[in-house]
Amino acid sequence: MPQPPAALPAPSAQAPGPLHAEGLVQLLTPSGERVGDPAWDPWVEHLDAAALRGLYRDMVLVRRFDTEATALQRQGELALFAQALGQEAAQVGSGRALAPQDHVFPSYREHGVAHTRGVDLADVLRLFRGVDHGGWDPVAHGFHLYTLVIGSHTLHAVGYAMGVQRDGDVGTGDASRDTAVVTYFGDGATAQGDVSEALVFAAVNRAPVVLFCQNNQWAISEPTTRQAVVPIADRAPGFGVPSVRVDGNDVLATYAVTAAALERARSGGGPTFVEAFTYRMGAHTTSDDPSRYRSADEEQHWRDRDPIDRLRRHLEATGELPDAFVDDLAHEADALGERVRTAVRAMGRPEAASMFEHVYATPHAGVDADRAAYERFEAAMEGTGGPTSTTTGTTTGMTTGTTGGHAR
């Protein structure tokens, strides 16, 4: 059998693999020590102690929301919930780097980004309760509805970015006009063809988009090592998209890297791929049991690198975390938890007929025909004394948990 040419390198058994921490951008160590980096320090030098406390507040509130939502699912108030536990720094740091006119395309775990965009976190749970497909206005918040189909929204984001580009809202020099688009996805999504296609379109069109991968090291029960043999970020340059790896548990570094990528996009420099190396401290969703596929030692290793603790240690060491602030934040978190519980329990069942609304922006003959058929069915059920969703929410053959809301 012929041998490959000598010029072709043999695979190296010593390759560091996709989970190594070498070369990660880091501005805060796990112990909270501020480390200087001349390439990235300028992007965070305007963040004073008050701004750092603001980032800390964001992360604490998002975690409280995560805890409350998980408890509500366990109590039967939610059908499912996808935790963001441990990923607060990646989400809050990147979210706070966005400008008001920027637009976000999330997957289904970006609760921290939703918070930074002014979305009421209680509205996020409308999806997980099965009331509708999203309880917020994407245009008003610059934050699209959650997407459950893995990786598909990366194409939506690039398409939107190409539209922004064609509208002339890139590279004008007007800071209030120039727009960037960000799409969030996990390491598992990079194994989907949609993400590769998004990278192709982003590269050849120099689209003003940041492709933000939260590498939390697990695609449900499949580790990143089963998805790649090199760091996830190394894939992007092959498409012509520059990439950077950042410590995703470092809110300052994440802010800096994202701010730089956004500025590049807004100025007409094209796309950037960001890999935020973090860890999913909770389950994939509340239907998952991570103890079946990962060890307690691994989980403890990452608890010791908790993103909230990291910033807290830094603020304490610099004397910038007064007791009054901590006490007020604890009360605010309690109030958020109570408000989320009350809001979720007050969410009623949607009318089954609402499934025909918000499907298309204009009338559609197929939808109209389906609506008419459904109305005839309802009338027949009422005439025979059968069950109807308009009174009980249990129409035969209908699933109220998937009705209403917006089309994706």
UniProtKB/TrEMBL annotation:
Could you tell me where the Low complexity compositional bias lies?
Answer: 387-401
GO MF, one example: oxidoreductase activity, acting on the aldehyde or oxo group of donors, disulfide as acceptor
Q: Which UniProt keywords apply?
A: Oxidoreductase, Pyruvate, Thiamine pyrophosphate
Cofactor(s), by name: thiamine diphosphate
Q: Which residues form the Dehydrogenase E1 component domain?
A: 57-334
InterPro entries in the record: Alpha-ketoacid_DH_E1_comp (IPR050771), DH_E1 (IPR001017), PdhA/BkdA (IPR017596), THDP-binding (IPR029061)
* Location of region: Disordered: 382-408
Q: Does the keyword Oxidoreductase apply?
A: yes
Does this entry carry the keyword Oxidoreductase? yes
Name of the protein this chain belongs to: Pyruvate dehydrogenase E1 component alpha subunit
- Organism the protein comes from: Cellulomonas marina
